[in-house]
Amino acid sequence: MTDSTLDPAHLVETEEGLRALYPATHEIAKQKCLPHLDRHARDFIARAPFLCIGTQTAEGRADVSPRGDPPGFVKVLDARTLLIPDRPGNNRLDTLSNIIASPAVGLLFIVPGFDDTLRVNGTARITRDPALLALMEVQGRLPLAAIAVTVEEVFLHCAKAFRRSRLWDPAQQQDRREMPSLVQIILDQTTGAPEDPAQQRVLDEGLEKAYRESMY
User: Fewest C-beta in 10 Å: which of 55, 105, 127, 148?
Assistant: First the structure.
């Protein structure tokens, strides 16, 4: 979609115009936002093996990155502080670079089987404190850095999105083989994928080997 396909007459561009479209926010929805991690939020985080972290560049370009590990990988240091390990990745460092430029972050914690999610908003810094990194050792390896989040807003998000999507319904699972492999897609988008299926299989197997050897 380009700007030329959007009729300016139908754009919503003011807070007043936006609020006029929807019913008033329920009082409970306003009151549920906490400035700290209560026992329910801590329990949710302890169960979560996965989160998404939203950041933005100094110019305001948005980015969302997934983070995953065994349940409890995010450490609650106190009621206002979370610690997220930075595991090996592709070294683009989008999230970390964005935090340096603009420390505001949004977190979405997801627990398999739970339709509700936990949202945490705050400000982040990058730490190399050896005592903190030691809390996140896995298979004898420490993360190179960790993201320390100062919590400003915490609330549970209702189940509607997950129930609409039927995300956890086994009958809704799709066959990944119906699309090209990750390696093939990236090569299609860059230098070009090999035409020989056997050569492509070798590349795909190489990625799986790299996954096994470089998780931590």
Answer: 127
Q: Are strands 50-56 and 104-110 parallel, antiparallel or unpaired?
A: antiparallel
C-alpha triplet 192, 195, 197: angle, nearest 5°:
120
At what angle are helices 182-189 and 197-214 packed, to 10 degrees?
110
pLDDT tens, 136-179?
Answer: 999 999 999 999 999 999 999 999 999 999 999 999 999 999 99
State both tokens at 177: 């083989």
Using CA of residue 132, residue 134, residue 137, residue 143, what is the dihedral sign? positive
Rg, the chain, Cα only: 21
Place of tokens 């929807």: 22
> Can you list the domains of the chain with their CATH numbers?
13-165 (2.30.110.10), 174-214 (no CATH)
d(CA 160, CA 91): 35
Q: How far apart are CA 122 and CA 117, in angstroms?
A: 17
Single pTM value for the model: 0.93
Please, are residues 151 and 125 in contact by the beta-carbon 8 Å criterion?
no
